[in-house]
């Protein structure tokens, strides 16, 4: 799923049987495209029918189904006729279907970047016998107990190794890997399966302090089978699509760099993973915002600060029903203000929009509430340091968001901005880990150590 490729073959609109020569190009960081001699539509001007649901293909790499194509460009010449290029959203390698409704599966297997280092399974070694030019792997593959997720998914985590030749010699190296297999009670649309995988990817990013992304994504179902001799097997359907999770600059973090090591959650991993799936459904916006700092090492400090401040505000808004005033009192204030504009006009609409969020707490109240409710005073030396941090966070957010030149001397910059951003991130991490079944003392230690890694 992360390796670039180009493949030539014959392609056809799934609703027709008109095969056209063309080339499919996949790049995980940019886009998928297909260029063909001619067009997938009968219209001589292809951009007038720029959306195509499904295209199927036959290539030396096997059969393909391309999903959600969008016209990109075309060019014509006397020698080659018309060449049309389309952007492709999703690639399914191994099957051909006639409808998106056919893209339902019962099983999925996947692996993600930094997954194996996080689990840190026992090492496997290779033993060479140079007399008969043979080798064998010492150690054994391991499979964890099945985990039931969301009541309808059986998750199996499997550690194994493969042999890879080392240059042109007879020596081989062992490549260890960890895979997750998901089995669903009933067939599911592949997009629902991808949402479940995405949830796990964000969990690994959150724990390892490095952006994770799928390195393998395969789907299986007994509707797609192939014969091998006298037996049959389910076809492994490989899925390819560009994802914002992928970044070629991501690195394999070692255990010392992980914010939440596997050893912290090992005893009740099934409980923690189920809790995370529930959390992500509600808090995916702040989680993705706080993880966004991992996607690019070149983000300006100002961007990281604004993402952290935004994440904290959204988290509090999703979790709390806190208001400035009681609902009854605020309704009286709102009605009194609206009475000043009895006739429907632009001024009344302006006032209505102004009052829409007027009863919501401001950033100062949100920060104080989170610090008090989650008992986060341990992040500060004393009350003065806590007060200074809250003032700095508010003034900096207001300056960057609303640009009030009068508070420029009060905003954070340089090391202060880095420290303020780290504290905002630590607050969100503390709030989220508090919702997971992690020992309280371990959770506090995690947050304190995290301040040095963010």
Automatic annotation (TrEMBL):
Transmembrane segments annotated in the record for this chain: none
Pfam families: ApeA_NTD1, HEPN_Apea
Coiled coil: none
Residue intervals of the Apea-like HEPN domain: 306-440
Domain (ApeA N-terminal): residue spans on this chain: 6-276
Classification via InterPro entries: ApeA_NTD (IPR041223), HEPN_Apea (IPR041229)
Domain of life: Bacteria
The protein's name: ApeA N-terminal domain-containing protein
Organism: Flagellimonas ochracea
């Amino acid at each position: 799923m992360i390796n670039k490729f180009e493949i030539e073959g014959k392609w056809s609109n799934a609703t027709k049987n008109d095969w056209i020569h063309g080339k499919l190009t996949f790049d995980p960081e940019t886009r998928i495209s297909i260029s063909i001699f001619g067009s997938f539509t009968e219209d001589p001007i292809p951009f007038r029918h720029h959306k195509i649901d499904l295209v199927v293909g036959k290539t030396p790499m096997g059969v393909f189904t391309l999903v959600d194509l969008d016209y990109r460009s075309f060019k014509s010449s006397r020698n080659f006729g018309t060449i049309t290029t389309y952007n492709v959203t999703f690639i399914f390698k191994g099957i051909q279907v006639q409808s998106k409704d056919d893209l339902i599966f019962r099983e999925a297997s996947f692996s993600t970047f930094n997954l194996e280092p996080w689990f840190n399974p026992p090492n496997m070694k290779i033993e060479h016998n140079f007399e008969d030019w043979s080798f064998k792997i010492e150690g054994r593959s391991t499979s964890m107990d099945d985990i039931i997720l969301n009541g309808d998914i059986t998750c199996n985590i499997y550690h194994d190794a493969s042999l890879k030749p080392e240059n042109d010699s007879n020596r081989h190296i062992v490549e260890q890997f960890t895979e997750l297999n998901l089995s669903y009670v009933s067939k599911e649309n592949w997009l629902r399966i991808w949402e479940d995988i995405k949830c796990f990817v964000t969990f690994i990013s959150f724990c390892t302090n490095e952006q994770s992304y799928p390195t393998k994504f395969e789907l299986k179902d007994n509707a797609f089978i192939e014969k091998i001799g006298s037996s049959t097997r389910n076809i492994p359907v490989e899925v390819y699509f560009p994802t914002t999770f992928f970044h070629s600059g991501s690195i394999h973090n070692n255990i010392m760099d992980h914010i939440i090591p596997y050893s912290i959650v090992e005893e009740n991993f099934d409980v923690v993973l189920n809790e995370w799936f529930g959390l992500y459904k509600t808090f995916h916006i702040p989680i993705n915002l706080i993880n966004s700092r991992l996607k690019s090492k070149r983000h300006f400090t100002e961007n990281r600060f604004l993402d952290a401040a935004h994440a904290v505000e959204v988290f509090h808004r999703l979790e709390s029903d806190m208001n400035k005033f009681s609902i009854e009192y605020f309704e009286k204030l709102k009605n009194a203000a609206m009475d000043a504009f009895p006739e429907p006009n632009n001024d009344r609409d302006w006032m209505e929009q102004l009052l829409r969020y007027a009863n919501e707490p401001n950033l100062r109240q949100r920060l104080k509430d989170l610090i008090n409710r989650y008992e986060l005073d341990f992040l500060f030396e004393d009350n003065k340091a806590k007060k200074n941090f809250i003032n700095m966070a508010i003034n900096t957010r207001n300056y960057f968001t609303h640009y009030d030149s009068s508070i420029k001397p009060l905003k954070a910059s340089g090391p202060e901005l880095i420290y303020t951003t780290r504290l905002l991130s630590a607050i969100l991490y503390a709030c989220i880990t508090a919702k997971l079944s992690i020992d309280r003392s371990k959770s506090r230690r995690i947050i304190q150590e995290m301040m040095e890694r963010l």
